[in-house]
Specification:
Elements: H1 2-17, E1 38-47, E2 52-61, E3 64-72, E4 78-86, E5 90-98
Antiparallel strand pairs: 1-2, 2-3, 3-4, 4-5
């Protein structure tokens, strides 16, 4: 009887020393607060060597977004798009073009010279 009691006491002591692992959220956790979106940005690329000229500007306050972007077209014109977006009217854009379209002169077609006929020699 004493042996059973001693084994039981040792088992209880061993189990009490190592409690099962548990996880709970840290006490410093706070629910994130989400407010209305608000931002403003602007960027441009203008490289005279390559002819690249494009950019964008946008501003948002809550559900209302407005902005514009522009790009040089291959025909030499500048295309500008001004837009607004809201929760009711959706996406509304106005597209304008600056400059006159110019096209390079086309040269008349000339077919390539035919390949020379193969020559065979015997040594």
């Amino acid at each position: 009887m004493k042996v059973i009691f001693a084994v039981l006491a040792l088992t209880v002591a061993a189990l009490a020393d190592n409690p099962p692992p548990s996880y709970q959220q840290p006490s410093t956790y706070q629910e994130p607060s989400y407010g209305p979106a608000q931002y403003n940005f602007d960027w441009n690329v203008k490289d005279d060597y390559s002819g690249n000229n494009y950019g964008q500007q946008e501003e948002r306050n809550g559900d209302k977004t407005s902005g514009s972007y522009y790009v040089n077209l291959p025909d030499g014109r500048l295309q500008k798009v001004t837009y607004t977006v809201d929760g009711y009217g959706g996406y509304q854009a106005e597209v304008t073009y600056e400059g006159e379209a110019t096209y390079a002169e086309t040269k008349p077609y000339q077919p390539a010279a035919p390949a020379p006929a193969p020559g065979y020699q015997s040594y």
